[in-house]
Amino acid sequence: MTLIKSISGIRGTIGGNTGDNLTPIDAVKFAASYGTWLRSYAGKDDLKVVIGRDARLSGEMIQNLVVSTLVGLGIDVVDLDLSTTPTVEIAVPLEQADGGIILTASHNPKQWNALKLLNEKGEFLDAAQGAIILELAEKEDFDFAEVDDLGNITKNDAYIDVHIDEVLNLSLVDADIIRAKKFKVVVDGVNSTGGIAIPKLLKELGVEVVELYCDPTGHFPHNPEPLKEHLGDICDLVVKEKADFGIVVDPDVDRLAFISNDGEMFGEEYTLVACADYVLSKTKGNTVSNLSSSRALRDITQKHGGTYEAAAVGEVNVVTKMKANNAVIGGEGNGGIIYPESHYGRDSLVGTALFLMLMAEKGGTVAELRASYPSYFMSKKKIQLTPELDVDGILSTMAKKYENEDLSTIDGVKVDFAENWVHLRKSNTEPIIRIYTEAKSQDDANALADKIIAEIKAVAGL
Protein backbone atom coordinates (compact mmCIF):
# COMPACT_ATOMS: atom_id res chain seq x y z
CA MET A 1 0.00 0.00 0.00
CA THR A 2 1.31 3.40 -0.95
CA LEU A 3 0.96 7.16 -0.41
CA ILE A 4 2.84 9.38 -2.85
CA LYS A 5 3.08 13.10 -2.09
CA SER A 6 4.33 15.23 -4.94
CA ILE A 7 4.13 18.79 -6.19
CA SER A 8 1.34 17.76 -8.58
CA GLY A 9 -0.92 16.36 -5.87
CA ILE A 10 -1.33 13.41 -3.56
CA ARG A 11 -2.20 9.88 -4.62
CA GLY A 12 -2.35 6.62 -2.80
CA THR A 13 -4.10 3.38 -2.12
CA ILE A 14 -7.27 3.26 -0.06
CA GLY A 15 -7.15 1.71 3.41
CA GLY A 16 -4.29 0.96 5.80
CA ASN A 17 -2.40 3.30 8.06
CA THR A 18 -2.46 7.09 8.11
CA GLY A 19 0.56 8.56 6.36
CA ASP A 20 1.24 5.33 4.50
CA ASN A 21 -1.92 5.25 2.41
CA LEU A 22 -4.66 7.59 1.22
CA THR A 23 -6.78 7.32 4.36
CA PRO A 24 -9.65 9.66 5.24
CA ILE A 25 -7.29 11.59 7.53
CA ASP A 26 -4.78 12.07 4.70
CA ALA A 27 -7.53 13.24 2.34
CA VAL A 28 -8.74 15.80 4.89
CA LYS A 29 -5.23 17.03 5.67
CA PHE A 30 -4.32 17.56 2.04
CA ALA A 31 -7.65 19.21 1.19
CA ALA A 32 -7.12 21.56 4.16
CA SER A 33 -3.61 22.34 2.93
CA TYR A 34 -4.93 23.22 -0.52
CA GLY A 35 -7.69 25.40 0.90
CA THR A 36 -5.26 27.17 3.23
CA TRP A 37 -2.85 27.82 0.36
CA LEU A 38 -5.67 29.02 -1.89
CA ARG A 39 -6.78 31.63 0.61
CA SER A 40 -3.25 33.07 0.73
CA TYR A 41 -2.78 32.77 -3.05
CA ALA A 42 -6.09 34.43 -3.92
CA GLY A 43 -5.68 37.04 -1.20
CA LYS A 44 -9.35 37.00 -0.18
CA ASP A 45 -11.78 35.16 2.09
CA ASP A 46 -14.75 34.51 -0.21
CA LEU A 47 -13.41 31.55 -2.16
CA LYS A 48 -15.06 29.09 -4.54
CA VAL A 49 -13.67 25.69 -5.59
CA VAL A 50 -15.01 23.27 -8.22
CA ILE A 51 -14.91 19.56 -7.31
CA GLY A 52 -15.45 16.59 -9.64
CA ARG A 53 -14.56 12.89 -9.58
CA ASP A 54 -14.20 9.83 -11.74
CA ALA A 55 -16.30 6.73 -11.00
CA ARG A 56 -13.81 4.72 -8.95
CA LEU A 57 -15.19 2.91 -5.92
CA SER A 58 -13.65 5.21 -3.30
CA GLY A 59 -14.69 8.37 -5.15
CA GLU A 60 -17.82 9.23 -3.20
CA MET A 61 -16.07 8.75 0.13
CA ILE A 62 -13.08 10.92 -0.84
CA GLN A 63 -15.41 13.50 -2.39
CA ASN A 64 -17.45 13.83 0.82
CA LEU A 65 -14.28 14.25 2.88
CA VAL A 66 -12.75 16.86 0.56
CA VAL A 67 -15.97 18.85 0.12
CA SER A 68 -16.66 18.90 3.86
CA THR A 69 -13.10 20.00 4.61
CA LEU A 70 -13.33 22.93 2.21
CA VAL A 71 -16.73 23.91 3.62
CA GLY A 72 -15.15 23.75 7.08
CA LEU A 73 -12.55 26.26 5.91
CA GLY A 74 -15.31 28.63 4.82
CA ILE A 75 -14.90 27.87 1.10
CA ASP A 76 -17.90 27.53 -1.22
CA VAL A 77 -17.93 24.37 -3.33
CA VAL A 78 -19.43 23.68 -6.75
CA ASP A 79 -19.92 19.91 -6.72
CA LEU A 80 -19.96 18.36 -10.21
CA ASP A 81 -20.08 14.83 -8.77
CA LEU A 82 -19.29 12.32 -11.56
CA SER A 83 -17.22 14.22 -14.11
CA THR A 84 -13.98 14.12 -16.09
CA THR A 85 -10.66 15.82 -15.54
CA PRO A 86 -11.04 18.12 -18.59
CA THR A 87 -14.65 18.91 -17.62
CA VAL A 88 -13.54 20.16 -14.19
CA GLU A 89 -10.76 22.17 -15.86
CA ILE A 90 -13.30 23.88 -18.12
CA ALA A 91 -15.76 24.45 -15.27
CA VAL A 92 -13.33 26.39 -13.05
CA PRO A 93 -13.11 29.56 -15.20
CA LEU A 94 -16.76 29.27 -16.31
CA GLU A 95 -17.77 29.29 -12.64
CA GLN A 96 -15.31 32.14 -11.96
CA ALA A 97 -13.94 29.86 -9.26
CA ASP A 98 -10.62 30.29 -7.48
CA GLY A 99 -9.50 26.71 -8.04
CA GLY A 100 -10.54 23.12 -8.53
CA ILE A 101 -9.86 19.61 -7.31
CA ILE A 102 -10.27 16.49 -9.43
CA LEU A 103 -10.62 13.27 -7.46
CA THR A 104 -9.05 10.63 -9.67
CA ALA A 105 -6.04 8.37 -9.82
CA SER A 106 -6.11 8.60 -13.61
CA HIS A 107 -4.96 5.29 -15.15
CA ASN A 108 -4.12 3.59 -11.83
CA PRO A 109 -6.10 0.51 -10.71
CA LYS A 110 -9.23 0.66 -8.57
CA GLN A 111 -7.49 0.62 -5.17
CA TRP A 112 -5.93 4.01 -5.94
CA ASN A 113 -7.33 7.52 -5.70
CA ALA A 114 -5.84 11.00 -5.75
CA LEU A 115 -6.41 14.73 -5.46
CA LYS A 116 -5.37 16.70 -8.56
CA LEU A 117 -5.15 20.41 -7.83
CA LEU A 118 -6.05 23.32 -10.15
CA ASN A 119 -5.61 27.09 -10.09
CA GLU A 120 -8.18 29.74 -11.07
CA LYS A 121 -7.54 29.07 -14.77
CA GLY A 122 -8.41 25.40 -14.40
CA GLU A 123 -4.76 24.48 -14.95
CA PHE A 124 -2.48 22.35 -12.78
CA LEU A 125 -0.43 24.08 -10.11
CA ASP A 126 3.26 24.68 -10.77
CA ALA A 127 6.09 23.14 -8.78
CA ALA A 128 6.52 26.08 -6.39
CA GLN A 129 2.82 26.13 -5.52
CA GLY A 130 2.75 22.37 -5.01
CA ALA A 131 5.75 22.58 -2.70
CA ILE A 132 3.97 25.13 -0.49
CA ILE A 133 0.96 22.83 -0.15
CA LEU A 134 3.18 19.92 0.85
CA GLU A 135 4.81 22.13 3.49
CA LEU A 136 1.42 23.19 4.85
CA ALA A 137 0.37 19.55 5.09
CA GLU A 138 3.42 18.79 7.22
CA LYS A 139 2.72 21.69 9.58
CA GLU A 140 -1.03 20.92 9.95
CA ASP A 141 -1.62 24.52 11.00
CA PHE A 142 -5.16 25.09 9.71
CA ASP A 143 -7.61 27.85 10.65
CA PHE A 144 -11.15 26.50 10.21
CA ALA A 145 -14.20 28.72 9.93
CA GLU A 146 -16.67 29.45 12.70
CA VAL A 147 -20.22 28.23 12.32
CA ASP A 148 -21.62 31.39 10.69
CA ASP A 149 -18.81 31.41 8.13
CA LEU A 150 -18.97 27.85 6.81
CA GLY A 151 -18.93 27.44 3.04
CA ASN A 152 -21.92 26.49 0.91
CA ILE A 153 -22.31 23.57 -1.50
CA THR A 154 -23.89 23.99 -4.94
CA LYS A 155 -24.51 20.82 -6.91
CA ASN A 156 -24.26 21.04 -10.70
CA ASP A 157 -24.35 17.87 -12.79
CA ALA A 158 -24.74 19.67 -16.15
CA TYR A 159 -21.09 20.33 -16.89
CA ILE A 160 -20.44 17.30 -19.09
CA ASP A 161 -23.17 18.71 -21.38
CA VAL A 162 -21.56 22.16 -21.14
CA HIS A 163 -18.21 20.59 -22.02
CA ILE A 164 -19.72 18.88 -25.07
CA ASP A 165 -21.23 22.18 -26.22
CA GLU A 166 -17.79 23.81 -25.85
CA VAL A 167 -16.29 21.10 -28.09
CA LEU A 168 -19.03 21.46 -30.71
CA ASN A 169 -18.40 25.23 -30.83
CA LEU A 170 -14.67 24.93 -31.57
CA SER A 171 -13.75 26.67 -34.83
CA LEU A 172 -12.23 23.53 -36.37
CA VAL A 173 -15.15 21.26 -35.47
CA ASP A 174 -18.04 21.10 -37.96
CA ALA A 175 -20.69 18.72 -36.67
CA ASP A 176 -22.50 18.62 -40.03
CA ILE A 177 -19.40 17.34 -41.82
CA ILE A 178 -19.00 14.56 -39.24
CA ARG A 179 -22.72 13.66 -39.26
CA ALA A 180 -22.66 13.26 -43.02
CA LYS A 181 -20.08 10.46 -42.76
CA LYS A 182 -22.29 8.26 -40.53
CA PHE A 183 -19.37 6.81 -38.61
CA LYS A 184 -19.75 3.75 -36.41
CA VAL A 185 -17.50 3.71 -33.32
CA VAL A 186 -16.98 1.32 -30.42
CA VAL A 187 -16.30 3.02 -27.05
CA ASP A 188 -14.54 1.43 -24.06
CA GLY A 189 -15.24 3.72 -21.09
CA VAL A 190 -13.58 1.33 -18.55
CA ASN A 191 -16.77 1.67 -16.45
CA SER A 192 -15.91 5.22 -15.47
CA THR A 193 -17.02 8.69 -16.52
CA GLY A 194 -15.72 8.33 -20.06
CA GLY A 195 -18.64 5.96 -20.50
CA ILE A 196 -20.92 8.96 -19.90
CA ALA A 197 -19.05 11.70 -21.76
CA ILE A 198 -17.68 10.06 -24.92
CA PRO A 199 -20.91 8.35 -26.09
CA LYS A 200 -22.83 11.60 -25.42
CA LEU A 201 -20.41 13.57 -27.57
CA LEU A 202 -20.44 11.00 -30.36
CA LYS A 203 -24.23 10.91 -30.49
CA GLU A 204 -24.31 14.70 -30.76
CA LEU A 205 -22.03 14.27 -33.79
CA GLY A 206 -24.32 11.73 -35.43
CA VAL A 207 -22.02 8.78 -34.76
CA GLU A 208 -23.48 5.30 -34.23
CA VAL A 209 -22.07 4.18 -30.86
CA VAL A 210 -21.41 0.64 -29.69
CA GLU A 211 -20.86 0.85 -25.93
CA LEU A 212 -18.40 -1.44 -24.15
CA TYR A 213 -17.84 -1.02 -20.40
CA CYS A 214 -19.63 2.34 -20.34
CA ASP A 215 -21.56 1.85 -17.07
CA PRO A 216 -19.84 4.15 -14.51
CA THR A 217 -19.77 1.64 -11.64
CA GLY A 218 -16.06 2.00 -10.88
CA HIS A 219 -15.58 -1.75 -11.34
CA PHE A 220 -12.84 -1.55 -13.98
CA PRO A 221 -13.19 -4.59 -16.29
CA HIS A 222 -9.48 -4.53 -17.16
CA ASN A 223 -6.35 -2.65 -16.20
CA PRO A 224 -7.49 0.95 -16.84
CA GLU A 225 -4.30 2.12 -18.53
CA PRO A 226 -5.17 2.20 -22.26
CA LEU A 227 -2.34 -0.03 -23.49
CA LYS A 228 -2.52 -2.81 -26.09
CA GLU A 229 -2.16 -5.67 -23.61
CA HIS A 230 -5.33 -4.51 -21.78
CA LEU A 231 -7.60 -3.93 -24.78
CA GLY A 232 -8.30 -7.28 -26.37
CA ASP A 233 -12.08 -6.98 -25.92
CA ILE A 234 -12.49 -3.73 -27.83
CA CYS A 235 -10.04 -4.80 -30.53
CA ASP A 236 -12.20 -7.88 -31.18
CA LEU A 237 -15.46 -5.92 -30.99
CA VAL A 238 -14.36 -3.28 -33.53
CA VAL A 239 -13.81 -6.06 -36.09
CA LYS A 240 -16.99 -7.93 -35.13
CA GLU A 241 -19.13 -4.80 -35.41
CA LYS A 242 -17.40 -3.69 -38.65
CA ALA A 243 -16.87 -0.34 -36.92
CA ASP A 244 -14.86 2.50 -38.42
CA PHE A 245 -12.69 2.56 -35.30
CA GLY A 246 -12.67 2.24 -31.52
CA ILE A 247 -12.13 4.79 -28.75
CA VAL A 248 -10.55 3.98 -25.39
CA VAL A 249 -10.14 6.44 -22.52
CA ASP A 250 -8.73 6.12 -19.02
CA PRO A 251 -10.99 6.59 -15.95
CA ASP A 252 -10.71 10.40 -15.84
CA VAL A 253 -10.83 10.88 -19.63
CA ASP A 254 -7.61 12.81 -20.21
CA ARG A 255 -5.90 10.00 -22.17
CA LEU A 256 -7.24 8.92 -25.55
CA ALA A 257 -6.37 5.88 -27.65
CA PHE A 258 -7.84 4.66 -30.92
CA ILE A 259 -8.36 1.17 -32.32
CA SER A 260 -8.08 0.96 -36.11
CA ASN A 261 -10.83 -0.63 -38.19
CA ASP A 262 -8.75 -3.81 -38.49
CA GLY A 263 -8.70 -4.28 -34.71
CA GLU A 264 -5.10 -3.12 -34.31
CA MET A 265 -3.92 -0.34 -32.01
CA PHE A 266 -3.61 3.00 -33.77
CA GLY A 267 -0.92 3.74 -31.17
CA GLU A 268 -1.25 6.09 -28.20
CA GLU A 269 1.72 8.10 -29.47
CA TYR A 270 -0.14 8.70 -32.73
CA THR A 271 -3.28 10.16 -31.13
CA LEU A 272 -1.47 13.50 -30.83
CA VAL A 273 0.16 13.08 -34.23
CA ALA A 274 -3.20 12.65 -35.97
CA CYS A 275 -4.92 15.50 -34.14
CA ALA A 276 -1.95 17.79 -34.82
CA ASP A 277 -2.01 16.79 -38.49
CA TYR A 278 -5.59 18.04 -38.73
CA VAL A 279 -5.08 21.24 -36.71
CA LEU A 280 -1.86 22.19 -38.54
CA SER A 281 -3.56 21.68 -41.91
CA LYS A 282 -5.98 24.45 -40.90
CA THR A 283 -3.91 26.61 -38.56
CA LYS A 284 -0.23 27.33 -39.18
CA GLY A 285 1.78 27.16 -36.01
CA ASN A 286 4.00 25.24 -33.62
CA THR A 287 3.65 22.14 -31.46
CA VAL A 288 4.99 20.86 -28.14
CA SER A 289 5.15 17.44 -26.53
CA ASN A 290 7.35 16.02 -23.80
CA LEU A 291 10.83 14.58 -24.16
CA SER A 292 9.55 10.99 -24.00
CA SER A 293 7.02 11.40 -26.81
CA SER A 294 7.40 10.21 -30.39
CA ARG A 295 9.51 12.00 -32.98
CA ALA A 296 6.56 11.56 -35.36
CA LEU A 297 5.02 14.80 -34.04
CA ARG A 298 8.16 16.70 -35.01
CA ASP A 299 7.99 15.21 -38.51
CA ILE A 300 4.33 16.14 -38.99
CA THR A 301 4.88 19.63 -37.60
CA GLN A 302 7.77 20.29 -39.96
CA LYS A 303 5.74 18.93 -42.89
CA HIS A 304 3.19 21.67 -42.19
CA GLY A 305 5.89 24.35 -41.84
CA GLY A 306 5.80 24.65 -38.05
CA THR A 307 8.37 24.29 -35.30
CA TYR A 308 8.37 21.49 -32.74
CA GLU A 309 9.72 21.84 -29.18
CA ALA A 310 10.08 19.26 -26.40
CA ALA A 311 9.26 19.99 -22.75
CA ALA A 312 10.15 18.18 -19.55
CA VAL A 313 7.78 15.34 -18.71
CA GLY A 314 4.62 16.50 -16.91
CA GLU A 315 1.51 18.26 -18.16
CA VAL A 316 2.33 21.57 -16.43
CA ASN A 317 5.74 21.62 -18.18
CA VAL A 318 4.17 20.97 -21.57
CA VAL A 319 1.61 23.74 -21.00
CA THR A 320 4.30 26.21 -19.94
CA LYS A 321 6.32 25.57 -23.10
CA MET A 322 3.19 25.67 -25.28
CA LYS A 323 2.43 29.15 -23.98
CA ALA A 324 6.03 30.29 -24.49
CA ASN A 325 6.13 28.95 -28.06
CA ASN A 326 2.58 29.92 -29.08
CA ALA A 327 1.84 26.29 -29.88
CA VAL A 328 -1.49 25.71 -31.62
CA ILE A 329 -1.66 22.14 -30.31
CA GLY A 330 0.43 19.96 -28.03
CA GLY A 331 0.26 17.25 -25.44
CA GLU A 332 1.84 14.01 -24.40
CA GLY A 333 2.51 10.75 -26.18
CA ASN A 334 0.29 8.88 -23.74
CA GLY A 335 -2.76 10.04 -25.68
CA GLY A 336 -3.08 13.47 -24.07
CA ILE A 337 -4.34 16.20 -26.41
CA ILE A 338 -3.96 19.84 -25.34
CA TYR A 339 -5.74 22.28 -27.66
CA PRO A 340 -5.41 25.88 -26.42
CA GLU A 341 -8.51 27.15 -28.24
CA SER A 342 -10.44 25.00 -25.78
CA HIS A 343 -8.23 25.05 -22.67
CA TYR A 344 -4.73 24.16 -21.47
CA GLY A 345 -5.43 20.62 -20.32
CA ARG A 346 -5.42 17.11 -21.79
CA ASP A 347 -8.88 16.49 -23.17
CA SER A 348 -10.17 13.30 -24.78
CA LEU A 349 -13.43 14.93 -25.88
CA VAL A 350 -11.54 17.57 -27.86
CA GLY A 351 -9.20 14.90 -29.26
CA THR A 352 -12.15 12.74 -30.35
CA ALA A 353 -13.78 15.62 -32.23
CA LEU A 354 -10.53 16.65 -33.97
CA PHE A 355 -9.88 13.03 -35.00
CA LEU A 356 -13.40 12.68 -36.43
CA MET A 357 -12.87 15.85 -38.45
CA LEU A 358 -9.58 14.47 -39.79
CA MET A 359 -11.23 11.20 -40.81
CA ALA A 360 -14.21 12.98 -42.34
CA GLU A 361 -11.98 15.18 -44.51
CA LYS A 362 -9.32 12.63 -45.45
CA GLY A 363 -11.60 9.69 -46.14
CA GLY A 364 -10.26 6.14 -46.24
CA THR A 365 -9.83 3.90 -43.20
CA VAL A 366 -8.14 4.51 -39.88
CA ALA A 367 -5.63 1.76 -40.71
CA GLU A 368 -4.74 3.60 -43.93
CA LEU A 369 -4.35 6.85 -42.00
CA ARG A 370 -1.97 5.20 -39.54
CA ALA A 371 0.08 3.74 -42.40
CA SER A 372 0.48 7.25 -43.88
CA TYR A 373 2.41 8.54 -40.86
CA PRO A 374 6.14 8.14 -40.15
CA SER A 375 6.59 4.80 -38.41
CA TYR A 376 8.54 4.71 -35.17
CA PHE A 377 8.83 2.07 -32.46
CA MET A 378 9.46 2.57 -28.75
CA SER A 379 11.15 0.58 -26.02
CA LYS A 380 10.48 1.36 -22.35
CA LYS A 381 12.80 -0.34 -19.89
CA LYS A 382 14.28 0.38 -16.47
CA ILE A 383 17.37 -0.50 -14.51
CA GLN A 384 17.19 -1.18 -10.79
CA LEU A 385 20.06 0.37 -8.83
CA THR A 386 21.07 0.02 -5.21
CA PRO A 387 20.04 2.82 -2.79
CA GLU A 388 23.61 3.87 -2.04
CA LEU A 389 24.40 4.70 -5.69
CA ASP A 390 24.46 8.35 -6.79
CA VAL A 391 21.80 8.30 -9.50
CA ASP A 392 22.30 11.99 -10.36
CA GLY A 393 26.01 11.35 -10.72
CA ILE A 394 25.37 8.45 -13.07
CA LEU A 395 23.12 10.59 -15.24
CA SER A 396 25.73 13.38 -15.29
CA THR A 397 28.36 10.89 -16.47
CA MET A 398 26.03 9.70 -19.25
CA ALA A 399 25.40 13.29 -20.29
CA LYS A 400 29.15 13.93 -20.43
CA LYS A 401 29.61 10.80 -22.57
CA TYR A 402 27.15 12.16 -25.17
CA GLU A 403 27.89 15.89 -24.87
CA ASN A 404 28.74 16.15 -28.57
CA GLU A 405 25.33 14.84 -29.60
CA ASP A 406 22.01 16.73 -29.62
CA LEU A 407 21.61 16.67 -25.84
CA SER A 408 18.96 17.90 -23.38
CA THR A 409 19.28 17.78 -19.60
CA ILE A 410 16.11 19.67 -18.63
CA ASP A 411 14.57 16.38 -17.46
CA GLY A 412 17.09 13.61 -16.97
CA VAL A 413 19.21 13.03 -20.07
CA LYS A 414 17.76 12.99 -23.60
CA VAL A 415 20.08 12.22 -26.53
CA ASP A 416 18.73 12.75 -30.04
CA PHE A 417 20.70 10.76 -32.60
CA ALA A 418 20.12 11.03 -36.34
CA GLU A 419 17.97 7.87 -36.58
CA ASN A 420 16.80 7.36 -33.00
CA TRP A 421 16.80 8.78 -29.46
CA VAL A 422 17.15 7.74 -25.84
CA HIS A 423 15.73 9.42 -22.73
CA LEU A 424 16.98 8.57 -19.25
CA ARG A 425 14.89 9.62 -16.23
CA LYS A 426 15.33 8.77 -12.57
CA SER A 427 12.43 7.76 -10.36
CA ASN A 428 11.56 10.18 -7.56
CA THR A 429 10.53 7.36 -5.23
CA GLU A 430 13.06 4.54 -5.75
CA PRO A 431 16.61 3.98 -7.10
CA ILE A 432 15.55 3.33 -10.70
CA ILE A 433 16.56 4.85 -14.01
CA ARG A 434 13.91 4.54 -16.71
CA ILE A 435 15.20 4.14 -20.25
CA TYR A 436 12.96 5.22 -23.12
CA THR A 437 14.14 4.75 -26.69
CA GLU A 438 12.62 5.23 -30.13
CA ALA A 439 13.84 3.98 -33.49
CA LYS A 440 12.56 2.95 -36.91
CA SER A 441 12.16 -0.69 -35.89
CA GLN A 442 11.34 -2.44 -32.63
CA ASP A 443 14.59 -4.38 -32.79
CA ASP A 444 16.59 -1.16 -33.13
CA ALA A 445 14.72 0.47 -30.24
CA ASN A 446 15.36 -2.55 -28.02
CA ALA A 447 19.00 -2.75 -29.06
CA LEU A 448 19.58 0.93 -28.24
CA ALA A 449 17.98 0.47 -24.83
CA ASP A 450 20.13 -2.58 -24.09
CA LYS A 451 23.27 -0.70 -25.17
CA ILE A 452 22.49 2.22 -22.85
CA ILE A 453 21.64 -0.14 -19.95
CA ALA A 454 25.05 -1.82 -20.39
CA GLU A 455 26.74 1.61 -20.33
CA ILE A 456 24.88 2.64 -17.16
CA LYS A 457 25.87 -0.61 -15.46
CA ALA A 458 29.50 0.03 -16.41
CA VAL A 459 29.34 3.56 -14.97
CA ALA A 460 27.66 2.28 -11.79
CA GLY A 461 30.11 -0.61 -11.43
CA LEU A 462 27.38 -3.23 -11.58
Automatic annotation (TrEMBL):
Pfam families, alphabetized: PGM_PMM_I (PF02878), PGM_PMM_II (PF02879), PGM_PMM_III (PF02880), PGM_PMM_IV (PF00408)
Protein name (record) = Phosphoglucosamine mutase
The record places domain Alpha-D-phosphohexomutase C-terminal at: 400-453
Q: Which UniProt keywords apply?
A: Isomerase, Magnesium, Metal-binding, Phosphoprotein
**GO terms of molecular function:** phosphoglucosamine mutase activity
Q: Which family does it belong to?
A: Belongs to the phosphohexose mutase family.
Note the NCBIfam families from the entry: Arch_GlmM
Please give the InterPro entries that the UniProt record associates with this protein. Answer: A-D-PHexomutase_a/b/a-I, A-D-PHexomutase_a/b/a-I/II/III, A-D-PHexomutase_a/b/a-II, A-D-PHexomutase_a/b/a-III, A-D-PHexomutase_C, A-D-PHexomutase_C_sf, A-D-PHexomutase_CS, Alpha-D-phosphohexomutase_SF
Superkingdom in the source lineage: Bacteria
Gene symbol? glmM
Q: Does the keyword Phosphoprotein apply?
A: yes
Looking up PANTHER family in the UniProt record yields: PHOSPHOGLUCOMUTASE (ALPHA-D-GLUCOSE-1,6-BISPHOSPHATE-DEPENDENT), PHOSPHOHEXOSE MUTASE
Signal peptide positions on this chain: none
Please report the stretch or stretches of sequence annotated as the Alpha-D-phosphohexomutase alpha/beta/alpha domain. 8-142, 171-263, 270-374
Give the E.C. number(s): 5.4.2.10
| The keyword Transmembrane is assigned to this record | no
